[in-house]
Amino acid sequence: MDWPHDPDGEQGSEGRRQYGHAVLAKKINEEEDFPLSAADYVEQYGDHPIRIDYETVVSVEEIFGGVEKEEFGDFVEFHQELGRAMRENGYWFYEGAEQFVDGSA
Predict the structure, then answer these.
(1) For 7, how many CA atoms within 13 A lie in the half-sphere containing its CB?
(2) InterPro entries of this UniProt entry (predicted)?
(3) pTM (2 decimals)?
C-alpha cells in the first residue's frame, strides 16, 4: 500500500519507531478533541499507517474496523476502546497483555 507518509518517519512515529496504540494516541489533543467522534477520527486519519510490530503496518481505518463505540468522552475511554479492539483483532503484539486486562498480573 502507498502510505501518505513513512510509518517510521517523523509524521509516523515522531522521529522514533513507535507502535500501535502510541501512534493512535499521538494524533489527539487531550484537552481540545473530546468528545471525539470515531467517524471523524477515521475521516481525518483513516489512511495513515500504524506500525503494529517490526514487520506489520496497517491503516487507522483497519484498526477502527473493530471499534464499537461511535464517540469517546475522554482520553481514557479512547484508550480503553482502542486497546480492546486491537487485542480482539490481533493488532496487539505485547506479550502478556491479557494479564493486564483481566487483573491476574
Answers:
(1) 23
(2) DUF5785
(3) 0.77
